[in-house]
Design a protein that fits this description.
4 copies of one chain form a homotetramer. The first copy, chain A, is α/β, with parallel strands linked by helices and 333 residues long. Chain A is built from 9 helices and 12 strands. In chain A, a hairpin with a 3-residue loop joins strand 11 (287-294) and strand 12. The longest helix of chain A is centred in the middle third of the chain and has 14 residues, at 142-155. Chains in contact: A-B, A-C, B-D, C-D. Chain A binds chain B through residues 164-165, 167, 169, 171, 192-197, 199-201, 222, 224, 226, 228, 230-233, 235, 237, 239, 241, 243, 275-279, 282, 290, 292-295, 298, 300, 302, and chain B through 164-165, 167, 169, 171, 192-197, 199-201, 222, 224, 226, 228, 230-233, 235, 237, 239, 241, 243, 275-279, 282, 290, 292-295, 298, 300, 302.
């Protein structure tokens, strides 16, 4: 296996720190730099490096860059990476929407580099065929990853009723809100609390979620999405409630999921009767899913990831493995 | 105000402890005894008493008894209380179902005292008219209280679609699982975790929930109910997703709730745009509700209580106040 | 009881919020205003007011002001209050040191109003005689309150060895670090962690602690003080380890404490053999203390308060009660 | 490297689960069985095995057994292992005391197999020379490991005052209390709390701690040891306060520690001025130590481990590596 030289932009955020940790143990990776404005000069935990400011990072010394940057900053850096001939794994939202118009709708500003769209959507279990060998990948958000994996076996079989909404009641650990201090992530505000936010259809991830779902099926109602801030540091649970159409019975669902994910190393379908909990996924690189049939037409699915791993850093590495043609799970299991 | 002499059976469980605390500060109450098998002889926190075993409690010395006992044990004690001529506020499940058959269905055993059914269902905001001056009241469970208060303004106006399910994704603090030690309440099992349990329609509270909802309207789909164990000590959130029928628009919901609860001292409807969080209700005797319209026909409601207060102990006291004809909020605000 | 008109400066910090809650239920208090720059215009939780900016607060409309402000800002406001003829209860550090020189030593800047020093030190259980009817009181810090109450019965009897240090290993909930967001109070940094900070003799509270201890006895070694940030929202435990001198035996300590605090309504000495835990004090206005004799000359004392109550807000109200000559525990038990 | 066949007794407790996880990734280990009475038949997390009851475990199929059993049960199994000619790594307290008399003193019952005593004490950083190639090792308790590593550089240089006590204020996550449900490990009892227990000199670990300390120096005062139950799942902090004798100055301590542990891969001495926090050690196999000089003669040391790793399972594996003559850190870094 040839060594792949990698650089991480935004290495001191929570996703960046997990990314650096995974890359530093990845057998094919030589981690060349990790950037941070806030922590420049400080040692990078779990790597033999110090954080450098972005403009001291040497693009010419790497084969691939990971962008764990705020949106807008990320697109600019992706552009620079592409021009420099390095592969780009973007963890921000900048490359996830297929069109500048969709980006404008959900992010309230013009896309800074519309020529970059569309980029391949890096959810390998659904979109693997479009990721092998490519130069740029948009790594999905934590909520869309978890929800789409919980819906995929149903969507690809057109199993949902077109007339009923898909309910996604989601709960995320606080690292999902980023490392920048704010009152909403202050310990004393979150502790012992549970906080719904951006409910209904107002969270930005709804655009990405519906865009990708509609590629799989035209037949589904609107997604109603309510995220909650959970008083834990990491882990994300999407509780999904769907209505099946007349061609499907909820008792068939376990088989549909087993078939879809039977050979997937990073998705675990729990046996019928067991429930996926946060602990099934936290500090792992996997998604865990449980299926509960409820009456004939209704189904309850629990899909769980670590928001910083399968919801961000480890999925980015999974994408990179595909981009370089090495085994998809290298460094991940 | 005449003094009401009260006794608490099961005073050392979590609901019992909150009950004793509320009663000991209640201006009309003289707390005569609190029973506990496990802690007999120990001082009762927040009261000037020691726990006594149940058979040393003097029924003839009290005007009312509160039963915070396991189901089945509670029915037997309710029977004894009634025969002794004292009023009975039951916090267990034993008097909540209207018929022995329904009890058998949900509790998997014959009702120990079928002659006690039906008893008035003690959710004052919905059923106040049937509680004034009565001798026995069944205090609702924490999940049904929280969900029914979140649905009531819609149910009484027949606002729901008859063809769509009502989704109740609920999250409860660990005191809801009782004080008896078990692996499922071990600190290290719950900490940093989130655990769905008895999902779909398998939790016992579903029977009580649908029984009471159907008294308000025949027009609604099945309730799909998924409780989760939340890593906090107290607080309960019911996230409710409903489909409205053609006569209603989601933008009307805020007004329906404001109208229903405008004069209710123990239900707080948050202003449009705000979200109810666990902290709105924990350590209070109130239910807090927020309403989020989602597209024209869909509505997301968040209803929050303290599972040990409005979900148990303070609602029991609210019922007692009604039973004795004193102001309903005495000792509660 | 005549009504006392009160104003709170800094009402939106954690201590300020508890203070407003206590004052709004205090039978002798009419809460006239609560100031906040950050939250001006927002409703004050637990009171029928909105936060006003400090310059809109009407000093002439109140009899007493509480200052829950950053140090330096507090001294300036204390000065204004005194000049306006209102009583001042300061919760900041500005009036706690007896001399400008001591202030300079521990706060690294000249005292903004040296003419205000010394002010009576508001720890009523130790210094009650100097608080009755006065116009200004410095309310102690949370660490000194908890540590001094744990040491007082020994200090006043000259029971400590002069040659051995007094060890104070303290643990505080995160509200003790204030409400202003910072990385050190970010949920994900504190959760599952335990963080020593400003250890040895570098925390500012050491000055106040030794100043007051030395007023009680000249006979004690240096205090070694290590605070830790505990992953809970509120509560403070001081674990104190002392060496007794030859005149005392550790077996006498329980009696010394019982004697000192037997008639104190806000200090609870636990029976021999029991240990004070955080739950003994959280959300109460009391300090709880347990005493463990260890060999003949060594003693381990655990002293616990709620850092926002007896460590701040409720002690401020206790002081105010003394300043106005009303029962010291009014509004507190 | 030859494969070492290993069996784990008591694999479903918290230490047992970590042990199985470490062994299943250890490059030299073939994990043959893991026993559990409670969970027999269930899959072993992180291994391709199911739990078997102890009497179905085949001693003849393994080269080494790990005993994560309750004390007394452990000694009996150690005896059987020795007689069967397999190496024994005991994680219980049964082999830690050097004499049956000392065991009787601290465990209140006669030692079940006095002929097994003394066994080598498996704290490699202190006692490595006595562990190479041996057949039986007593793995130390979590508190003694953490405290002894924090004291070792001082003890071996006779740096402590003989007249002053050594204070060990310790805080442990709840897994330290074992997996068996009890009220004291119930989530709602521990959450938001901090609980001192077995304080002074009453905790059983004091015997082991002083026994090993006295082998290093005769010159030290008594150890005063106060453990606390911390509301986190794992991690242990020992806050140590010592008085130095006239030959040493606290400013020399950083060098003493750097010298003692400079080449130790599993002990991290933090740079002067930094403080060891729980996060430095949790989910690692290391001990992290920080040193704070306080005046000339006093020193504050913070020593931190993961109670289930360096405090139990990973230290057991470290010992096993030494017993089989392979690199001490195999499978651990």
């Amino acid at each position: 296996m040839n060594t792949i030289r990698a650089g991480v932009y935004g290495g001191s955020g929570y996703a960046g720190l997990d990314l650096v940790e995974i890359l530093s143990r990845h057998p094919a990776i030589d981690l060349v730099f990790a950037t941070s404005n806030t922590y420049q000069g400080d040692p990078v935990p779990s790597a033999d490096l110090c954080f450098v400011p972005p403009d001291e990072a040497a693009l010419e010394a790497v084969d691939v860059i990971f962008l764990a940057l705020p949106h807008r900053a990320s697109a600019a850096m992706a552009k620079r990476g592409i021009e420099a001939g390095v592969k780009v794994v973007d963890l921000s939202a900048d490359l996830r929407m297929d069109s500048p118009e969709a980006y404008q709708t959900h992010y309230d500003s013009p896309h800074p580099h519309p020529e970059l769209l569309p980029a391949p959507y890096g959810l390998p279990e659904i979109n693997r065929a479009n990721l092998a060998g490519v130069d740029v990948v948009a790594t999905p958000g934590c909520y869309p990853t978890t929800a789409l994996l919980g819906l995929y076996p149903l969507l690809r079989h057109n199993a949902l009723s077109a007339d009923a909404p898909v309910i996604v009641d989601a709960k995320s650990g606080v690292t999902g809100a980023g490392r920048k201090p704010s009152l909403s992530t202050h310990f004393a505000e979150v502790y012992s609390n549970l906080i719904p936010y951006k409910t209904g259809r107002s969270h930005r991830h709804i655009g990405e979620l519906e865009q990708e779902a509609h590629k799989l099926t035209p037949r589904m109602g609107p997604i109603i999405f309510c995220p909650h801030l959970l008083p834990v540091d990491r882990g994300l649970m999407a509780s999904i409630y769907v209505t099946l159409n007349d061609c499907f019975d909820s008792s068939q669902a376990q088989d549909l999921f087993a078939e879809a994910y039977g050979s997937e190393p990073l998705v675990e379908v729990l046996p019928a009767g067991e429930q996926a909990t946060l602990k099934h996924a936290v500090k792992t690189n996997r998604c865990a899913i449980s299926i509960t049939p409820v009456l004939e037409r209704y189904l309850h699915i629990t899909s769980v990831t670590d928001n910083l791993r399968k919801g961000a850093a480890s999925q980015a590495v999974q994408n990179m493995n595909l981009m370089f043609g090495i085994d998809e799970t290298t460094g991940l299991i």
